Amino acid sequence: MVKNLYSPSMLKSYLSCKYTIFNEVNEKKLNLKKIELSKNDQLRVEKGNVHEKNYLKELKKKFKKVIDRKNSDLSKDEKVPKTIQAMKEGWEIIYGGYLKRDKWRGEFDFLIINKNLKSKFGDYSYEVIDTKNSNKPKPDHIIQLGMYTYMLEGTQGVLPKKFTIVLKDMISEDVQVNQVNEFFKTHRENYEEFVNGEIDKTKPENCSFCQICKWQEECEKIWINKDSLNQVGGLTKVHLKKLLELKIDTASKLSKQDSNKQIKGFRKEISEKLITQAKLQKEYEKTGVPIHQPNLNNINGIKGFNLLPEPSACDLYFDIESVEDHIYPGGLEYLLGIYYIENDKEKFKALWSHDKEEEKKNLIEFFDFTKSHFKKYPSSKIYHYGSYEITALLKLTSLHKVKGIEYDHYLNLDKFVNLLNVNRQGLFISENSYSLKNVEKFYNFKREGNVQKGDVSQDYYSEWIETQDQNYLDEIESYNKQDCRSTFELHKWLLEIKPPAASWFTSQKLEEEMKLRDWEIDMKLYSIKVEKSKIKNKEIKQLMSDIIGFYNRENKPAWREFFDRRSKSDEELIDDPECIGGMKSNGKPTPEKRSLIYSYAFEDQDFKLRKSKKVIIANNQDIEQKDNAGTILDIDYKKKEVLLKRGTASGILPPILSIGPNKPQGNDKLILNTYKFIDSLINDEKKYKALNDFLEKKHPNIKDVKEGEKIIQNDEFDKEIPKIISNLNDSYIYIQGPPGTGKTYQAANAITELLKQNKKIAITGLSHKVIHNLLYRVEEMAAKKQIEFVGYKRGNLEDDDQIFNGEYIQTHSKDPIFMDALEESNVGQIFAGTKFHLSSRYYDEKIDFLFIDEAGQVSLADLISIGNIAKNIVLIGDQNQLGQPIKGNHPNNSGQSILDYLLEGKDTIPDDRGIFLNKTYRLHSKINNFISSNFYEERLICDERTDKRVIHFNKNSMIKDSGIHFIEMKHENNIQTSLEEFEVVNKLMKQMMGSDYEDNGKKRKLNVEDFLIISPYNTQVNLLISKLEEAKIKNPKVGTIDKFQGQEAPITIISMTSSDSDSLPRNKEFFFSRNRLNVAISRAQVASIILFNPLLLDSSPKNLDHIKLMNNFFKFLNYKI
User: Which long-range contacts (CB under 8 A, 24 or more apart) does 326-331 make?
Assistant: First the structure.
C-alpha cells in the first residue's frame, strides 16, 4: 500500500523534523526500523475510540438528523462522494466522513451544521468537530483539525469560522480559524513544495525533536557511518557552522585537532571541550569501552568535583515524576521519591499525589520528613540529577503557598546537591549526552521493568487515570526508585574517581543562622490572619492570601541565579545575558581621586547591563576580594570595551573579570504597605476606596457619569479626559493608548489641569526612564499653558539614569524634603519616583491623584503596595505592548500585571470601563490596517494626516511604497548575530537615505535620524552599530524593542537575526511575542521593514498559544517584496 503523503499526520511529522518524511517514504525501500507503537500507545487509541463513540451518543440525544459514514464497508475514496451527498442533504451531524482537496485527504470525526454561515450547499455550512481523550488541546490536534477545515473549505466553498475539539469529560474548546489559518496555509504550501522536490535532498540533523523521535536510532546510525559532526555531544548549530567553514567537517577531523590549541573563532574552553568530546567518542566507537577523564580546567574554584560535600552517614537521593498539562490540568508532580541507606538497610519513601490537594499534602510531608531527617543527620544532603527537582519545588511552594520558608533555608544551607553539575563541569565522557541513562554505563547500573524513560512514565500515569490499574503505578514507582538508586550509585562512583587535587565543598551558612527571620514570621502571621478573617468578598480574600509572599517569590529566581553564578566559569558567564563574562583587562587602571578607572575588553555576547549600573564580580570565589566591581562608566559597543569605576578601598580588580547584577533589591516598604492594606480589609476600615474599586473591578465612579454609560461621549479627548479625571470620585480610570495615539500627551494634559486646581499628584512607572518621559511632557505643557507648580523627583544623585532636573521639577535624594513638601497647601505639586519611593509611609492618603504610566509593565502587587497613597488612581498604558517582566511563580491571579488583571484577556477596554484612545497620529493606514485588526479589534483608526507623510523612494531602492514589507533572509546557524542581515540593513539605509520626504507639506531629505533599527538581541544590536559605523553610517539609532517603546520614526527596520527555531537562544514565547511584535511594527510612521528567515516558522509548536503567536508572523509572508 502506497503511503498517503498528503495527510494531517504527515504534516505534523514534517513540522517536527523534515527528515522524518524521508524515513516514512523510504521505510520499506531502505528497510528502516522505527520504534513501534507500545502497548500503552495502543491502549490510548482504544480509549480515544471509546471517547468518540460516547460523544456520538451525546450528539444523537441533541440532534435528530445524524448520519454515520464511518461504520461502512466503503473504501476511503468511495466515502468522499457519500460525504458530499450527506452535506448536500443538510444532515445536522455527519459522523466519520472522508474529505479530499487537491492531493490532501483525511477522515474526520464529525461535521456539525452551522446555519449562520452560507455555503454552496445553501443557507448553511459545516464545521469540524474532533474528539480527543486529553485534558487540553495539543498542537497535533490543532494541526489535524486545521487541515480538515482546509479540506472542508474546498468541499463547501466557504471557510468555517471555527473548529472544535471535544476533550475529556466532554469539555469543548473552540479554535477561531482566523487566529491559526496563516500558520496552516504557509506550512501546507511549504510541505507540498518539499514533497515535490526537496524530500531526497534532506539530511538527518541533530535537533530538539531527536530525543522523542521514533527514527532516532536510524539517524544515529547514519551519523556514525558518515562520521558526521552531528554525533558529537554538546555541539550546537553555531559550532557546526564555524567548523564547516574551517573545513573540519567530520567527527574524526575534529578529534584529531590539538586540544591545547584554540580552534579559530572558538573560545578556549569550548574548543578544548569539543575536541576532547570528539576524541573520546571516536575512541569509544573503536573499543566499545566507556571512557572518562577529569576536566582539569575546573579543578579549582567552586565547580566540578569541588561541588561535592563530604559524604554523610545518611544522605538522601531524590527524584520527581510529573505529568504535563494535557494529562492533568495545570500539570501534576505526582510522585516524590526519596531513597537512602540507614543502618545498612535500603529505604525508599514514595509520596503519591493524584490531585492538587494531595500534591500540597505531600509537599508538606516532604519537607517535614527531610527536616526531621536533618535533625537526626545534620550533615546529610539531598542529591538529585538536573535542575528539575529544585525548579519543581520552587514552583510547588509558590503555588501552594506552603513550605516556601523551608525551601529557602535548604537553599541557603546548600542542602541540595546537583550531580549533573558535577558531571558536566568535572568530567569529559565518551557519551554524546550527560543524561543519567547515558552516564549509567560508567558505573554499570542495570535497569529493570517496562518503564525506561520519563516520557513512558507519563504515558503509564495517563493510562492509570483511565484504568485505575495498580500495575501502572507499580511500574512507575519501580522506575522512580531506580532513578533514585542510580543517583546514589553515581554519587558513589564520583567519590571513587574524585581527583586528589579537588577539595570538599563546605557550606558557609550555619544551621543556627537559619531560624525564622522577622519577615518570615510576619508572612506566616498574615497568612493566618487572612485565612481566619471575615473579608466579605471571597475573591478579594483569596487574592490577599495569594499576594502575601509575592515579593519573596518574585525575587527567588534572581537570588538563585545570583548564587548559581558563584560556581560558574568566566566562559559560562559569557552565555548569561545578565552578565558581561570573560572580560580581559586592557592595562593598569587610571587613578581618579579616591577611585580607579579600569578598562576591560569583552567578546561578542548578549547582555543587559548598561551605563551607570553598579555591578559585582559575578563569580567571585576569592575571600580576599570584595564582591563590589564598581560602577559602569561607559560601554563602547564598537570597540567592545567597558569602563569601570571602583573605589581604591575595595582593592584591585583581577585581570580576567565577569561582572553581573547585585543582589535583588529589598522590598520591605512594599511588603509593609501590603500588610497595611490587608489590615484595612480585615478591620473593615473603609479606607483606600480607589484601590478597592479597582480590585473589585467596579465601574469607575465618575461624577455625572452613570454606571454602564459610555465614559467618553464625543472623542474630544483634550477636553473630555481632564474633566473625567477631575470628576473621579475616590475611584480609578484606565486610559488605553495604542501606538501613536498620544497617551503621554493626554496624561500630561490632564495633570496640568489638575495642577491648576492645586492638586497633589504622584507619578510612577516601572523605571526612571518611563517616569522621566511623562515628566518631560508635563513640564513642556505647563510652560505652554503658563502653569506654575513645584515638582519633586526621587533619585540617586550619583546615577545619571535617576536624575531629572527641569524648570519645575528637581531630583532629591533625602526623605525630609518630600515630607515637608507634603505639608504645603494651595500649590500644585508633583511627587515622582519608583514604587520603592512612593511606598514610604509618609505618603499614606496624602496624594489626590496617582498616575501610573506604562501600567501594563507594573504588577498588581505593586499597585496594592502603593495604591494606599492616593484618593484617585489613573492608569495609563496598553496591555498589548510590552508587559511586566515577571520571574517568579505565583498562585492564581497574584502574578498578573495591573492591566492583565483588569482586562481579563480583552484587547481593548470597553467604553463603559475606561477610555480607549482610538485615533493614531503615527501609523500610515497601510500599517494601521495590520495593527488595528490584529491587536485592537479594528477599533484603531488613522488621523487623516498620517497618509500625508510620503517618502519618494529612490529608484534603486528595494522599498517602493509605504506600509509593511517583508524581506526573506536565507542564512544558516545564526543565533544572536547575523552578518547577512547587517548587509541588507546597510543596503536599505544607503538606498533610502537622501530620499525626498514629505510630511503634510513640509519637505526634506531622509537622514540617519529617520531610521529605527530593531533587533531582539543586544549582540545583534552591537554588531549593527559597529558595522554600520564602519560603513560610514554615523550614529545609527539601533536598539532592542524595549529601548524604542514610545519612540517613532518614518522607517523601521527589524532584524530578527536567528536562522531557525532550533537556533533561538530564548523561548518561543519571547521571540514570537504578540506584544513585542506590536511594538516593533508600530514604531514606524511610513514604512516598516522586517527581515527574517522563514525557517524560523518551520517548527513544531508546543501549544495552541504558540500557533497563535506564529500565525501573526506568517501574515508577514503576504508582504514579501
Answer: 326/134, 326/135, 326/136, 326/137, 326/138, 327/134, 327/135, 327/458, 327/461, 327/462, 327/465, 328/135, 328/465, 329/135, 329/136, 330/356
Helix (H, G, I), strand (E, B) or coil at 418: strand
Residue type (1 letter), 214: K
pLDDT for the residue numbered 1: 42
* Cα–Cα distance, 375 to 312 (Å, whole number): 13
977 within 8 A of 604, measured Cβ to Cβ: yes
Amino acid found at 870: A
CA dihedral 599, 602, 606, 609 (to 10 degrees): -10
- At which residue does the C-alpha cell 490540568 appear? 329
The pTM assigned to this predicted structure is 0.85
Q: Please report, rounded to a whole number, the percentage of residues in the chain having pLDDT higher than 90.
A: 66
7: burial class by Cβ within 10 Å (0-12, 13-18, 19+)?
A: middle
How far apart CA 640 and CA 198 sit, in angstroms, is 42
Q: Evaluate whether 848 touches 870 at the Cβ level (below 8 Å).
A: yes
Give CA–CA dist 877/883, Å, rounded. 10
**How do beta strands 641-647 and 829-832 pair?**
unpaired
Pairwise CA distance, residues 868 & 674, whole Å: 9
pLDDT tens-place string over residues 903-934: 998 999 999 999 999 999 999 999 999 999 99
pLDDT of residue 215: 84
Model confidence at 511, in pLDDT bands (50, 70, 90)? low
Return the exposure string of 124-143: e unless at least 16 CB atoms fall within 10 Å of the residue's CB, then b: bbbbbbbbbbbbbbbbbbbb
Rounded to the nearest 10 degrees, how much is the dihedral formed by the CA atoms of 361, 363, 365, 366?
A: 160
Query: Cα dist. 159→33, 128, 146, 929 in Å?
Result: 40, 11, 11, 22
CB-neighbour burial class of residue 971 (10 A; exposed 0-12, middle 13-18, buried 19+): middle
Q: How many angstroms separate the Cα of 1027 from the Cα of each of 134, 207, 637, 1021, 1088?
A: 51, 31, 11, 10, 21
Of the candidates 1015, 1100, 1028, the one whose C-alpha atom is nearest the C-alpha of residue 1058 is 1015
Which class for 332: exposed (0-12), middle (13-18), buried (19 or more C-beta within 10 A)?
A: buried
Residue environment code for 1044-1081, b if the CB has 16+ CB neighbours within 10 A, otherwise e: bbbebbbbbbbbbbbbbbbbbbeebeebbbbbbbbbbb
User: 64-101: string of b/e by CB count within 10 Å (b at 16+)?
Assistant: eebbebbeeeeeeeebbebbbebbeeebbbbbbbbbbb
Over the stretch 362-412, which tens digit does the pLDDT of each residue have? 999 999 999 999 999 999 999 999 999 999 999 999 889 899 889 989 988
Give the Å distances, CA to CA, from 1061 to 210, 228, 1055. Answer: 14, 22, 15
- C-alpha to C-alpha distance for 452 and 465, rounded to whole angstroms: 20
- Backbone φ and ψ for 274, nearest 5 degrees, come out as -70, -40
Q: Which three cell numbers stand for residue 225?
A: 557511518
Is-contact 484 337, C-beta < 8 A? yes
Nearest one of 1016, 736, 766 to 880, comparing CA atoms = 736
- Phi-psi domain of 892 (left: phi exceeds 0; alpha: psi -120 through 50; beta: other): left
Nearest C-alpha neighbor of 1020 from the set 1051, 1068, 968, 1065 = 1065
Name the nearest CA neighbour of 215 among 431, 27, 45, 38. 27
Q: Mind giving me the DSSP string for 186-242? A: HHHHHHHHIIIIITTT------TTGGG-TTHHHHHHHHHHTT-GGGSTT--HHHHHH
| Angstrom distance (rounded) from CA 1109 to CA 1090 | 16
- Residue 335: strand, helix, or coil: strand
Please state, in angstroms and as integers, the Cα–Cα distance from residue 953 to each residue in 959, 981, 1050, following that order: 7, 21, 12
Cα–Cα distance measured from residue 887 to residue 895, given in angstroms and rounded to the nearest whole number = 9
C-alpha angle 533/535/537, rounded to 5°? 145
**pLDDT-derived band at 35, boundaries 50, 70, 90:** low
